[in-house]
Amino acid sequence: MQSKSAQELAILQNQIIHCRKCPRLVEWREKIAREKTKRFRDWTYWGKPNPGFGDPKAEILLVGLAPAAHGGNRTGRMFTGDRSGDWLYRALFRTGFANQPTSTDRNDGLKLRNCYITAVCRCAPPLNKLLPSEIAQCRPYLLREIQLLKNIHVVVGLGRVGFENAYRAMREVRSGEMKTGKRRPAFCHGVEYQLGDRLFLLGSYHPSQQNTFTGKLTEVMLDTVFQKTKELIR
Fold first, then answer.
1. Which of 31, 33, 106, 158 to pair with 182, CA 20 to 30 A apart?
2. Can you tell me the mean pLDDT for 41-49?
3. Nearest CA-CA partner of 18 in 52, 49, 44, 53
4. What is the domain range of residue 148?
5. Which positions ≥6 away from 186 have C-beta within 8 Å?
6. Number of structural domains in the chain
7. Any idea what the CATH number is for the domain that residue 175 is in?
8. Residue 157: enclosing H or E segment and its boundaries?
């Protein structure tokens, strides 16, 4: 039987899937789903927001930016079906947070261990650029996830936007556990901040093609971040 938190997460995930708050994003995600791209022309695209997913009892929370137009917007699962996801899930597998190193579709058998993945925005944005109003519209979903994921001790922000929004959300939802008088954390790869007695925020470059193709982010660098998360929850 599912726990109450798991049941409430499932309800939230369903609400996210049916969200149509942002007209620009709705138009774009549905346009991409109709027109597709040549290499995926035989796919039936998801074309809806991507809910968060993973272990409801997770101690680790990953916060990315948004689904990719032909990744999550096609497959219906965050970081699935694109090169960013290839990098991320290999790293999670190598560090014990996933049961397999590949992610191709929602029914590929992937399971996260002690880890939950979400994003600042649930819809693929044009040119990967979000408007401040769209981030604000999606914000309540992230806040609610943090409320329901009661065991979270380490948050990893993937990219500057993921990192900064994760910090703001934690500050709002779990302020009672956080230290006061601290300056706002500054983003860089591998940065670690202790927000409370057992509450940490880590930063990682986003595993985007721009970062991985140029060598700004290597697999060793990504593995190091997740090895650190393991140390922090022991």
1. 158
2. 97
3. 49
4. 4-233
5. none
6. 1
7. 3.40.470.10
8. strand 154-158
